[in-house]
Amino acid sequence: MIADSFVPGKGILYRFDPRMKLLCLLFVVLAFFIESSLPVKAGLLAIFVLLTGTSLGAGKAAVPFKLIWPILVLTAILTPPFNLGGEVLLSLKGRPVLTSDGLEAAAAMLLRFSGITAAFFLFFSTTETSAFILALRSFGLPYKAALTVTISLRYIPDMFRVYGNISDAHKLRSAGIMQGGRRRGFQRRLAHLFPVLISVLIQAVKSIPALAMALDSKGFGRQNPRTSCRKLPHWSAIKPDIAGAAAVIALTAFVIVLL
After folding, report:
1. What is the rounded distance in angstroms from the CA atom of residue 236 to the CA atom of residue 248?
2. Which residues of the chain are modeled with pLDDT < 50?
3. Which domain holds residue 192?
4. CA nearest neighbour of 5 among 179, 201, 166, 152
5. How far apart, in Å, are the Cα atoms of 86 and each of 27, 103, 105, 193?
6. Cα–Cα–Cα angle for 130, 164, 76, rounded to 5 degrees
7. In 34-94, which ranges are E strands?
């Protein structure tokens, strides 16, 4: 289980201290939850899309939205009927279905989900998992909690990789059946999904002994103080990063309050 979401590259985001990036990330997430105008949320989202494109490549800018597109579709469909205030834009048999308030609420939710996803995607794509864990440890996170976070961050991408490999293997095995034309569309995808999920579950259960040995080698459960081969620079050595993070937070807060 060595899968990682980090994408090697060069740029200011890669050189930025992970502790300051983490503080900026938390503040930006809070900014998306604060009641602000739609242009502010849209502007923050555009900034993250631009940073993702310039840091990881233009092809990576759409990846966060591909990961959550079912959530975005459901949000766009289900939010307007529960917000029926304002001007009626669409009615069905005399009952309002879409109003101006519902449309605005749906747009706010879509921008919020998209912005938070893009922010986390950019953070973990430009920050090594080890550096992120060291940042959490520097803020006082216990070793056991840090190890749990590490396993989660590596296990989830690994399961996605396993799912992709197993899905490709099942497609190859069922190529002749699929060409027969008996199963098409949603029925074919559903019939393909069930055996893939069963195979992924079996693979996850088979990886339990390896996970147990990894925890044992990491000294999980020991009471003696932990040490680390790698340490982050002292706070006095990252004054430019601290100033940059403070500037980002102050500028974002100013824009939110102003608009």
Report:
1. 19
2. 1-2, 180-183
3. 142-228
4. 152
5. 32, 10, 11, 43
6. 90
7. 88-92
